[in-house]
Every structure is written in C-alpha cells, then in structure tokens.
Design a protein that fits this description.
elongated; mainly alpha
C-alpha cells in the first residue's frame, strides 16, 4: 500500500488544530487544578506535599498563560465534551484504593503527576511547532514557558521519587 501524500494544511486549518489541542490542555489543566488539594492531602510526607503545592501553582500559571494565548488570538476557550486529560484526572490513577504502605501511595501520586506532565510536555511541543508555523511568536513564547514548567515538574517528581526510594 502506497502512502497517501496529502497537501500541507493551510493556516486556517492549522489554527483550528492549534485551538483544538490548546482547549484540551486548558480544560484538562483547569480540571486538574481543582483537584490538586486532594493530592496534597493524600501525600504522607512533607516534601511531597510541598512539591504538589508547587505543581499546583505552576498549573495555575500555565492556565493564565493559556488564557493570554486565547486573548492574543482573539479566541475564547470552548468547553470540551470529551477531554482525555480530564478522563485521566478523574480516574486518579486508582489513587482512591487504600494502601497499607504509605510509600506505595506516595509513589502512585508521583507517577500519576508525571504521566499528566508527559501528556502536557508532548502537547506543548506540538503546539509550539504549530505556533512557529503560524508565526505566533508571543504565543510560542508562552507555550515554551508552560513546556519548561511541565518538564521541570517531571524532573522534580523524579528526584523526589529517587530520594524517597533510596533514602
């Protein structure tokens, strides 16, 4: 079977793709931000609580940057009927299961947050690429800041997990 070579999408179609994925991340982040307090309450040690609080503040800043992106583009976020990030957040990585060992619960929280950040890192990377194609320089900068924060959070939770496991 021969690959189908379709023409590159035009600017209007790229903007539609961009807004679709931005809206998914935006609505997912808003939904997540409402639930970070629950994650903090589940943590069994102070270092993880502080990291989740820092993560929550980063999510809040990322939401603000995305709202700025909507303003720059003259758009408003639309409610998403099906949002895969919301589905992952709602599922909470089965964190509601009672663990007899606090370490297991804490590691599940860290893994859960990292899974979410990996989705965001990938999404921001794609949005940055589209913003560059559309010559949205300010938007690209805001997305890069969000990307960097998500990458930093991933590293933070990796360090905490390593420290927690190795003592």
């Amino acid at each position: 079977m021969e690959p189908i070579n379709s023409p590159a999408p035009d600017a209007a179609f790229l903007k539609l793709i961009f807004l679709h994925h931005l809206t998914r991340i935006y609505n997912g982040k808003r939904f997540l931000h409402q639930r970070t307090g629950h994650l903090t309450a589940m943590a069994s040690f102070k270092g993880l609580e502080l990291a989740i609080d820092e993560f929550s503040e980063d999510v809040k800043r990322q939401i603000s940057r995305m709202e700025e992106i909507y303003k720059l583009l003259g758009e408003t976020p639309s409610p998403e009927v099906c949002n895969p990030i919301k589905s992952i957040v709602k599922d909470e990585f089965c964190l509601d299961e009672t663990q007899n060992i606090p370490l297991l619960n804490d590691l599940d929280i860290m893994l859960y947050i990292q899974v979410l950040e990996h989705i965001n890192i990938t999404s921001y990377r794609m949005l940055i690429m589209i913003a560059k194609m559309l010559k949205y320089d300010e938007v690209k900068q805001l997305l890069t800041e969000n990307f960097d924060e998500s990458a930093d959070n991933d590293k933070l939770f990796t360090l905490i997990a390593k420290e927690y496991i190795t003592g």
